[in-house]
Amino acid sequence: MIDVEIDADRSIRIVTLDRPAARNALTVGGLEALEDAVADADESVLYLHGRGPAFCAGADLEVVAALDGDREDAVEFARLGQRVARTIEESPAIVVAGIDGPARGGGLELALACDVRVGTPDSTYGEPGVTFGLFGAWGGTVRLPRLVGESNALEFALTGRVVDAEEARRMGLISRLEDDPRDVALEITDNEADACAVLKRRVRDDADRGMKERREAEAFGDLVAAHADDIDALLE
């Protein structure tokens, strides 16, 4: 489900979410493989993208349904997604998300953890969890308001609406629009790797957000327990 290609000459690691038939939705195994692919990176730049017509649909709904309303298992699943997002955010590499097609829920949240987000004109963005009684719990409530402001974050997440690439750029969800987002990752590799790494560390230097993430995971667990039947209905 995760494909890794390394361009040693340019010091870039290309990590591909490789489950196109499921819009690259992530299972527990997929999350763990993604975590390993990022944690193992020795390259100065890591480019994350999805194969096929979507970037990532987020968590596989079959996995969420299989939680069967178990609050503690739901908390653990949320914590896994948060851990993967932190691994992306704290990677020594500069992580560039190349977003083509839909980025939804947890897929968007993983993109938010990247250092640079570049969308194609066909990319779209949404946090649809509220439409079936949940919300994104892979660090989204921490990162989204930091990037787009509290008011925009609340409106975007509470309505569950989908925004196109131009609106996403205006909001600050992405920083650039390119036909081939990989070009931006290659631009970064042209610069001095040590300077880029130091710059990332300084910009990423932030107050402890562990408590916020723990509370987010606990709230997700509460909702999974309360909406187990609604989640099952999505698969019918």
TrEMBL record:
- InterPro entries in UniProt: ClpP/crotonase-like_dom_sf, Enoyl-CoA_hyd/isom_CS, Enoyl-CoA_hydra/iso
Alphabetically sorted, this entry's keywords are: Isomerase
| Highest taxon in the source lineage | Archaea
Select a single GO molecular function from the record's annotations and give it: isomerase activity
Report the record's Gene Ontology biological process terms.
fatty acid beta-oxidation
Keyword Isomerase assigned: yes
- Tagged with keyword Transmembrane: no
Q: Name one Pfam family in it.
A: ECH_1
Q: Which residues form the signal peptide?
A: none
Q: Which family does it belong to?
A: Belongs to the enoyl-CoA hydratase/isomerase family.
What's the name of the protein?
Enoyl-CoA hydratase/isomerase family protein
Organism for this UniProt entry: Natrarchaeobius chitinivorans
Q: What is the lineage of its organism?
A: Archaea, Methanobacteriati, Methanobacteriota, Stenosarchaea group, Halobacteria
